[in-house]
Amino acid sequence: MTDVATTSPRREATRQKLRDAAAQTFAEVGLDAASVEAICERAGFTRGAFYSNYETKEGLFLDLAGEVARERVGMVRERVAELQREGALAEVAGRALEVVGQIVDTSHEDRAGVLLMSEIRIHALRSPELAAAYLAQEDEMVAGVAQIIAEIADGDALRFRLEPEHAARMLITTWESASVRAVMAGADQDELCRRSNEEVARVAQLLLEAGPAV
């Protein structure tokens, strides 16, 4: 597979269209049922364009999984930057659950996004190569959220009952689990977010307490 860092802008644009098309296709029918032809048709490319960028659809799947992880970490950081501009983090002691809920709301995922992440996980259970990549990407996600949690604690606004890494993993797991249950229940986007935020708030209430950080 071509290294993205050495890929020309035009080639990367092609790869991005393939990833976007694959994300929709994998979410709709799963990796096993998805065909290269269906992905190419959705992206508006030929099979030749596909195979000049990816050796297999599994290679594209793995690349897509990495992109999803990076995007989720990026959205966490963007949300924290927004809260900092609004001055919300400076007043976090009085808004602990609200702010933490906003930070951990990493994906703003719709049904397709939840289905795609579930598809990635199920295949990671069966593929040692994908499992290793998935766990590495998950660790990156946890590390990103943990760093943010640590930065908030350094501001003396909150005391965490767990180390930042453990708190981050618990909050992310809670959000993802609640999202999956909401999709299974047929919830729309608003309901999905509401249920997930409520679950995160319940767990955050157990993890956080106002006061100077220890």
From TrEMBL:
Pfam families from the UniProt entry: TetR_N
Keyword terms, alphabetized: DNA-binding, Transcription, Transcription regulation
InterPro entries found in the cross-reference section: Homeodomain-like_sf, HTH_TetR, Tet_transcr_reg_TetR-rel_C_sf
Span of domain HTH tetR-type: 12-72
Native organism taxonomy: Bacteria, Bacillati, Actinomycetota, Actinomycetes, Micrococcales
UniProt KW Secreted keyword: no
Location of the DNA-binding region in this protein: 35-54
Protein name: TetR/AcrR family transcriptional regulator
